[in-house]
Each structure stands twice: as structure tokens, then as C-alpha cells.
Design brief:
Elements lengths: L9 E2 L2 E2 L3 E3 L1 H23 L11 H20 E3 L10 E7 L6 E6 L10 E3 L3 H6 L7 E6 L2 E12 L1
Parallel strand pairs: 3-4, 6-7
Antiparallel strand pairs: 1-2, 5-6, 5-9, 8-9
Helix pairs in contact: 1-2
Length: 158
């Protein structure tokens, strides 16, 4: 399985090619999509307030955006067996060329991203650079301060 981050091209938050992920990540993705669609239906049923004005317009817009994104990822999802490459659901340990300490990143779907806990979306610069890499590979991440070269040290599949 030879994957490169350049194989995942996104336009308007819609994956255009297969998005490799673990089975449990796909299950979480489908569950989250069902939750968002349920909230969206409830929101649509509660359209007007007591004055006849639209209610929860901003929340509904956020839910519609999340649902569209989750549907697109779900359609592009490719459940793959756990192997030697980083996929969505993998935890990747990297070291930088600058000799910094080893950093850990978990590659997740956008709704699970949390940079404070090192959970990076597969479509973020770091997530996209690590997706499809194997131990020993070097991922290049473009940053405002220049390119960062991250060498993959360990890939864990929980």
C-alpha cells in the first residue's frame, strides 16, 4: 500500500480520493454523522420562535456544515487493515531534523481534532504530511517559518 499525502486532495473540505482509516474510526465517524443529522432534524423542526422569527440559525448553519463535511469524508472513507503506514486513527511519533524531542500526533477526522492534545485532522498540514508514511519516512510540513522535516519513528494503531 503506497500512499502519499499528496494523494489526498481536498477542495472545499471535500475529499476527492479515498481517505484511509481504521474500522473503529469509521464507526465513530458514522455515529457522529448520525448525531449531527439528528440534531439538524430537531433544529429544522424548531424553526420559528414565539415571534415567528427563525430560531437557532447560526447553530443550524454549523450543523449543516458539519453534516456535509462528515458525509463527504464518509463517502471517501476506505477502511484499511492496520499495517505499516499511518492512517486515520494512527498515533505517529516523529522527531524533527532540528534534533528536538520526539513528538506524538494522533491522526483523526476533523470533528475530533484537538491540537492541545496532539490530535491533528488528516487534512491539517501535519496530518496530511504524516498520512500514508511508514517508519523511517520523512514528512515535510510547510509552516510560516519554513518547512519542517519530521522523521517517522513509531506508528501505533490502537
Amino acid at each position: 500500500m503506497s500512499m502519499q499525502s499528496s494523494e489526498i486532495r481536498r477542495e472545499s473540505s471535500t475529499p476527492t480520493l479515498d481517505v484511509p482509516m481504521q474500522a473503529q474510526v469509521y464507526a465513530r465517524l458514522r455515529n457522529r454523522l448520525r448525531e449531527v443529522e439528528t440534531l439538524l432534524e430537531q433544529s429544522r423542526a424548531d424553526r420559528l420562535d414565539e415571534n415567528g422569527e427563525p430560531r437557532h440559525v447560526a447553530e443550524r448553519a454549523v450543523l449543516e456544515s458539519q453534516a456535509a463535511s462528515l458525509r463527504a469524508i464518509s463517502k471517501a472513507a476506505q477502511v484499511v487493515p492496520i499495517g505499516a503506514h499511518a492512517i486515520i486513527g494512527s498515533t505517529v511519533h516523529v522527531s524533527s531534523a532540528e534534533g528536538a524531542a520526539v513528538e506524538r500526533y494522533e491522526i483523526v477526522i476533523p470533528t475530533e481534532a484537538d491540537p492541545a492534545t496532539r490530535k491533528v485532522s488528516f487534512d491539517s498540514p501535519i496530518g496530511a504530511a504524516l498520512l500514508g508514511r511508514a517508519v523511517g519516512d520523512t514528512a515535510v510540513v510547510s509552516t510560516p517559518r519554513g518547512d519542517r522535516h519530521l522523521r517517522v519513528m513509531v506508528i501505533q494503531h490502537d
